[in-house]
Amino acid sequence: MSTPTGSPPPQPFSQAIADDVILRAVDISKLFPGTVALDHVNFNVYRGKVNVLVGENGAGKSTLMKILAGVYTPTSGKLLLEGQEIELRNPVEAARHGIGIIYQEMNLFPNLSVVENIFMAREVTHGRIVIDQKTQTERAAKLLERLRQPISPNDLVSDLRIGQQQIVEIAKALAQDARVLIMD
User: Fold this and answer.
1) CA distances from 117 to 39, 49, 110, 183 (A)
2) Domain 21-97: which CATH number of 1.10.340.30, 3.40.50.300, 3.40.50.1220, 3.30.300.20
3) Minimum mean pLDDT among 32-46, 80-94, 115-129: which range?
4) What is the pLDDT of residue 127?
């Protein structure tokens, strides 16, 4: 059966799986005490695309993004990455799966340099102890160049404008080799 425009009817969400879907939220619900934040929500993230989720304040957009990034666990529903079901109990697990998030509130240390912020808690080391400053600085410079930003890895974050600090947040996520980058 076709629609009046001649195109085939849309498939139910559970059947519409495209090869270019990298991350899929299926029938996600999230309950907080006294509140239904998400009620059987479905959402696809397409590979190589800018995916946008638009809605009113309080519609659950940030809650869904935090579920996709492992900050919250869903009350029900499932997440599929490359077609395989995954459980994300925390952001570290999400990062291991290549899912990064940039929060609305910046999470930077203003008294540290750009490179120190980018590699915080993920330092490149010689052996287990000595931090490889040269390699970190080179990688940070490449990330900032990729983002076309004239920011020095050695600049203090407190000396940067807000827009530049947001770029540092993006560089942090890219430094984790994120395949999916969520901007809340």
Assistant:
1) 36, 27, 9, 18
2) 3.40.50.300
3) 115-129
4) 78
